[in-house]
């Protein structure tokens, strides 16, 4: 087994896709690696992943795999969560710059100030945040369990919720709880155009509108179903409708089309018709850098042990409370 050092350049593997996939398959076996992929990854990555899921399912999978190496095809906070849960494993991410605006716009020092201004509040952080922010939180949630978890917080506790205000507002309405919200949002879900959505609905009157709760409330108000990526996928499988207007990152549509080839899935463009509905961070990963990270065993996620231990508590609490 050849381990290429982090500094050594991997020869440019730009041949065809089959060769790339063959090389990945050989190395994943040699390294006893599992490839986890979020639904927003490009189709080629989803097609070779061992497991595809939303952020909650991916966390669960990362915490109970027998693999020695986790190749996390998603964004940094997701790979970091895998490392928090499985510190003995090597957690690789194809591109270390695959960040997230929600996590990046909630720096740990500003979050500390925010918390200190509300010392009597119970702190719930959406999983889209750094380990250092998780370490300052009482409970972590994902888009699939946030409503359920907020409902479990005793009624006499005030709640701080960070960093996604759109998800926070939706959770407030669903749970009938008031929360103090950190003013963050996702660049991808904020750019969907209401005008484009309404035009699509006019030309596809029988299509159901399905949305991720990171969308702004004017779009959520127009939606027939709201949920995490996994819940959206499940909904399209169980609904009697045969066409759907999908208000989230279009990577998820790959799985929808694979499992329901006869149903029709429609993407919503961003403002001014841009294609900014694709998450620029998720899309930094590709087959080439996936192979590269398996060759070099780098970039690997490292976390200060004291922070990891503090961040583990609210994640474990989430996993316990959302069984
Ligand atoms: P999920 O919880 O549906 O995986 O969403 C994560 C995310 O980053 C959405 O933008
Ligand atoms: Fe972050 Fe938005 Fe990308 Fe999800 S879609 S990873 S919230 S930037």
Summary tags:
single chain; 323 residues; alpha/beta; Rossmann fold; four-stranded parallel sheet; 16 helices; 12 strands; 42% helix; globular; binds 1,3-dihydroxyacetonephosphate; binds iron/sulfur cluster
Report on this model:
The chain is α/β, with parallel strands linked by helices. The protein has three domains: 2-98 and 281-303, NadA-like (Rossmann fold), CATH 3.40.50.10800; 102-187 and 312-321, NadA-like (Rossmann fold), CATH 3.40.50.10800; 192-267, NadA-like (Rossmann fold, 3-Layer(aba) Sandwich), CATH 3.40.50. Helices cover 42% and strands 15% of the residues. It contains 16 helices and twelve strands. It has helices at 17-30, 43-48, 55-63, 76-85, 101-104, 108-116, 131-134, 146-152, 165-175, 187-190, 194-203, 217-220, 229-238, 252-259, 287-296, 305-321, and strands at 33-38, 51-53, 69-73, 90-92, 121-126, 139-141, 158-162, 179-181, 208-211, 225-226, 243-247, 264-267. The protein has a four-stranded parallel beta sheet, sandwiched between helices. It has a four-stranded parallel beta sheet with strand order 6-5-7-8. Strands 10-9-11-12 form a four-stranded parallel beta sheet, with helices on both faces. Helix 12 links the parallel strand 9 (208-211) and strand 10. Helix 4 packs across helix 16. The longest helix has 17 residues, at 305-321. It is globular. The two termini are 39 Å apart. The model is unreliable at 1-13 (pLDDT under 50). The chain binds 1,3-dihydroxyacetonephosphate (13P) and iron/sulfur cluster. Residues 54-55, 128, 142-144, 186, 212, 214, 228-229 line the site of 1,3-dihydroxyacetonephosphate.
